[in-house]
């Protein structure tokens, strides 16, 4: 039985439509939340192994914002891009093409691995008036507070890609490993919220197309971080960071904020890498304040 979604009442009040668009030689599935006449449109890019459902708790707290949330190629309901390696260049190029097709000039938001994809795309010229990065990857993952666990993850994804098909797929979709990951990242003491988080990961964390695209995306996620793109992002940028993040320590996020020409950093205490599940209202408040003074230059 699925754990109750504590954000369902808010989310149910927001209209949502599923769409598809041809970009990058493939078809991208995406969801549009909110009214079509909303003053601001945000394209929201989810993190590694996730899909659009993961950002819905934040969406639930932004009812007056039109939010477009795609599944990254190779995850959720979006098939892999045909004939290419799914490295950071591929994802950044896909995002630029997707944004131009569905909402040119929209604000761009990225969570976790999505923060790297967004930063790479914007640094290379994606047209957007403002950038929002939630749990940004602000330092090499292998050097984070749990660098040893990241190194184990490197071996895990390497083994999943090298083992025979059936064994590799079984390893990468293993429910026990997914649960260990979920338990390690959740910081909340609320048992109902923890159950919801684990249920979300159980349900959506293995909705990747195949082990090749998963391995490519993992390599992209640990081979890059936002620092390499920050100086080339002139747009006003909001960083929403967690004080207890096990992937990027808060000290590194504070340093990251200084690398942007124009950046605000909001620190959320008592939460880790799951801001979008544990403290979505706080994140949404920060995003709303950041967007309010944007005026007519923001779609």
How would you explain this protein's 3D organization?
The protein has twelve helices and eight strands. The chain is an alpha/beta fold and 299 residues long. It has an eight-stranded mixed β-sheet with strand order 1-2-4-3-5-6-7-8, with helices on both faces. Helix 7 (175-185) crosses helix 8. The model is unreliable at 294-299 (pLDDT under 50).
Question: Features of this protein?
Answer:
alpha/beta, disordered C terminus, 8-stranded mixed β-sheet, 8 strands, 299 residues, 16% strand, 41% helix
> What's the helix count?
12
The run of helices and strands is: HEEEHEHEHEHHHHHEHEHH
Residue fraction in strands: 15-25%
Give the overall shape: globular
Tell me the Rg in angstroms: 18 Å
Helix content: 40-55%
Strand order of the largest sheet: 1-2-4-3-5-6-7-8
Mean pLDDT: 93
Query: Structural class from helices and strands?
Result: alpha/beta
Question: Major sheet: size, sense and barrel closure?
Answer: 8 strands, mixed
- Runs in which pLDDT lies below 50 for 5 or more consecutive residues are 294-299
**Distance, first to last CA:** 40 Å
Number of strands: 8
């Amino acid at each position: 039985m699925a754990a109750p979604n504590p954000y369902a009442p808010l989310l149910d009040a927001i209209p949502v439509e599923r769409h598809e668009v041809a970009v990058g030689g493939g078809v991208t599935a995406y969801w549009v939340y909110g009214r079509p006449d909303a003053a601001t449109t945000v394209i929201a890019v989810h993190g590694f192994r996730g899909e659009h459902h993961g950002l819905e708790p934040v969406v639930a707290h932004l009812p007056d914002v039109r939010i477009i949330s795609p599944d990254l190629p190779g995850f959720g309901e979006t098939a892999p891009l045909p004939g290419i390696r799914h490295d950071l260049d591929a994802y950044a190029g896909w995002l630029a093409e997707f944004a131009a097709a569905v909402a040119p000039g929209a604000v761009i938001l990225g969570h976790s691995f999505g923060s790297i994809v967004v930063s790479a795309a914007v640094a290379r010229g994606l047209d957007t008036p403002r950038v929002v990065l939630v749990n940004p990857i602000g330092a090499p993952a292998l050097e984070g507070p749990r660098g040893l666990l990241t190194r184990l993850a490197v071996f895990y994804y390497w083994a999943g890609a090298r083992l025979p098909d059936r064994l590799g797929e079984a390893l990468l979709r293993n429910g026990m490993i997914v649960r260990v990951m979920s338990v390690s990242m959740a910081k909340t003491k609320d048992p109902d919220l923890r159950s919801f988080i684990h249920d979300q990961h159980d349900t959506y964390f293995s909705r990747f197309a195949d082990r090749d695209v998963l391995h490519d995306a993992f390599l992209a996620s640990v081979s890059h971080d936002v620092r390499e793109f920050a100086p080339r992002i002139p747009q006003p940028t909001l960083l929403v960071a967690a004080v207890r993040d096990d992937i990027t320590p808060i000290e590194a996020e504070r340093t990251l904020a200084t690398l942007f020409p124009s950046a605000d950093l909001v620190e959320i205490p008592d939460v880790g890498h799951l801001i979008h599940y544990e403290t979505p209202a706080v994140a949404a408040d920060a995003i709303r304040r950041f967007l309010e003074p944007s005026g007519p230059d923001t779609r």
